[in-house]
Structure formats: C-alpha cells, structure tokens
Amino acid sequence: MNIGIIGAGRVGCSIGKYLTEHADDCTVVGYFSRTHDKITDAADFTCSKAFSDLDELIKSSDTLLITTPDDSIKDVWDCIDKQTINGKIICHFSGSLSSDVFEDILEFGAFPGSVHPMYAFSDRFQSYKNLNEVVFTLEGHSFFLKRMDLLFSSCGNTVCLIEKDNKVKYHAAASMVSNHMLALLDTGISLLQEIGFSREDGYKVFSPLVKNNICNAVDSSIEASLTGPIERGDFNTVVKHLNGLQGYPKEVYGLLGKNVLEIAKRKNADKDYLRIERILNNENHSNDI
C-alpha cells in the first residue's frame, strides 16, 4: 500500500509517522499541503517526500488520507482531478463527517471511507507515540474497510466498524468524554477559586481524584468506581450542595446528578433513592435537612 497524505498538521504528521514505524506492507510516499514549511517538516519527520503538486502525490499513491480540518475536506475533494483516482482508496479522518462527503466518487472508480482514531492529537511530533493504544473506527466502502482494517490491525490496533448514519452520535460521544469533561473540571476549579484557592492549587487538588477515577472506571467499570453522596444515598448532603450553588454550576450539578443517580441504581439495585430522585427533579426539600 502506497499512502499519500493531504494535510501536514497534527493528525497527518502523527498518522504518517505511526504507519511508517508500525504498519506491514505500507509505504508513506509523502505529503501535500498548502503550507510549504509544514510539508517539508512532515516529509522529513516520516522520511518521505514533500509534494508541491497534488496530482503528483495522487499518481504516486494508491491510498489517499485527507487529514485536513473538517471544513476543508470537501474543498480538497473538489480540487482532486477525478480522472486520476480510478482504483484508489480515498478517505478522511473526520470524526463527524461520513464518506458521503466524497460526492459521486464511485462514478470515478474510487473507494471512499472515513477513519477516526479515538484520540486527541496535541502535538505534531509526539502524539504518534501513543497511537498503539488507540481504537480506530472505520466507515465506508467494503473494499476500503477490508484494506484499512488490515492496515491498522497490522499495527496492533483494535478496529471498529460503524454505519455512516451513526457518525454524528459517535463524534458527539467522543466530544462529551473528551472536551466536556475538561469543561466540568474547569467548573470545579472555578468553584474552588471562589472560596480562595488559586487556580494552580485547584489543579493539584483535583489531579489525583480525576486520575484515580478515570483509571478505576476504564480498568474496572463506571459502576464499581462510583462513590459520593448520591451513590451513598446521602440526601442531606445533596440538598446542601444544591442550596449552596447558583447559576451554571447548579444546573450542571443537577443535570449530571441525574445521570449519577442512574449509575447508582445500577450499582445498588436494592437501595431506595426516591428522596434524592425527587430533589434532583427540582422538587423542594430544602426544609427536610
């Protein structure tokens, strides 16, 4: 498999380096990008070629990986000379877009698909080191699925297949677990700042708590890892929390508290959570404490 990569940012550099070091029967032939310095850096990093002409990259490749931002994928597709892609795999790395972005691709004899590594790429030249633990999700034409499944499986990765209609929900789940979790951490740190903690101390306070919770959840289960006043059925503490919060933090506490309650019910099927359920559903129990 001769792979050409369009886009030389964090995803493009990382995937190219990872495949160069780990994939069987695979050669990264080079990169094309509108930013010359990025192409040169990516090519040097992967011991491949910096292409100044997109058509030349396409001619040299049987598989094209488009690793640009989502908003640019359609533009890249529109720029490709459709008479040069017969028999080639063309895929992108968007989590939210499906292979449908490659409009009329089958008419030109090419095989569309999308690849999404469930991973946050933070550095062009370091992120590849952790990709051996990442799950790759594929969607697209059957020929694409077969070839790319073999490619990433040869690297030792777990590969999952999804339907194109499920990509938006899939990506929303990824965003919630990744991005929204950071927003929740930021909310907690902000509350500590309100009572006199520095932001730096906030990180120190929450670091072992967050790390231990996540490790326990992924190593065991969410149910086994759940602790706290809702799980214990500590009604008075939950009421005090709600009465002590205002605005956005209170909304977050109440909304996520309902989810915590559902997890607690799964963990402790015989426990009575009715009073806590009522307070989380905005029934007034402030006089009960």
UniProtKB/TrEMBL annotation:
Which Pfam families does the UniProt record give?
DUF2520, Rossmann-like
Q: Enumerate the spans annotated as DUF2520 domain.
A: 135-259
Family matches, as InterPro entries: 6-PGluconate_DH-like_C_sf (IPR008927), DUF2520 (IPR018931), NAD(P)-bd_dom_sf (IPR036291), OxRdtase/DH_put_Rossmann_dom (IPR019665), TM1727-like_C_sf (IPR037108)
Which residue range or ranges hold the Putative oxidoreductase/dehydrogenase Rossmann-like domain?
2-117
Highest taxon listed in the record's lineage: Bacteria
In Swiss-Prot or TrEMBL terms, this protein is called Predicted oxidoreductase, contains short-chain dehydrogenase (SDR) and DUF2520 domains
